[in-house]
Amino acid sequence: MKLDRSEITGQPTPSVAPLSNLSTVLPMSPEGSTPPPKRASHQPTRFNRDLSWQVATNLLISFKYAATGISYAFQTQRNFRIHVVIGSVAIALGIFLQVGFVEISIITLTIGAVLTMELLNTALESVVDLTVQQSYHDLAKIAKDCAAGAVLISAIVAIAVAGCLLLPPLFTWVQSIL
C-alpha cells in the first residue's frame, strides 16, 4: 500500500518539476555574481540524470544511478582516484607476494571501506554546497570537516591493515633476493 503525503500530513502534495540541467551548474566567484573563468584543461562533467530525482523503478536503473555516482566521483574527485590507485597497488602487491586469500580479502574490504567513505564525503559535500549556496556557514564547515576526517581515519586504518598484512611478506621477499 502506497501512502500519499497528503494522507499522512493532511497537506496537499507539492508538485515537483524535474531539474533538467544540473550538470551545467558552475561554482561562483568569491563575489558571488559570476562563474569563475574556465580553466583550459578542465572540461565540465555532464551527466544526463533528468529523472534522477524520482525513485528508480527497477533494479537495473538503480545500478545505473550507482555507476553514475561512482563515475562522477572518479572523474571529479582527485582523492577518490588516489585511493583507487593505492588500493589497486596494495591488491597487486598482495597477489605478487602470494599472501593468502583471507589477507587479500581483508585488504579489499578495507579499500572498499575507504572508497565508500570517499563517496559519502562527496555526497555530503554536494548536499552542503547545495544547501548553503556559495555562502559560508559554520555548520557547513563542521559537516564537511567531519566527513573529510572520516575519510582520513578510514584511509589511515586501511594503510595500517595493509601494512600489517603486506610488510612481513615484503621483507621476506626482499631478504630472499639480497
UniProtKB/TrEMBL annotation:
Name assigned to this protein: Diacylglycerol kinase
Could you confirm whether the keyword Metal-binding appears in this record?
yes
One example of a Gene Ontology biological process annotation? phospholipid biosynthetic process
Where in the cell is the protein located? Answer: Cell membrane
InterPro entries found in the cross-reference section: DAGK, DAGK_sf, UDPK
Chain positions recorded as a divalent metal cation binding sites: E125
Q: List every stretch annotated Disordered.
A: 1-21
Annotated GO MF terms: ATP binding; kinase activity; metal ion binding
User: Which regions span the lipid bilayer?
Assistant: 80-98, 104-124, 145-171
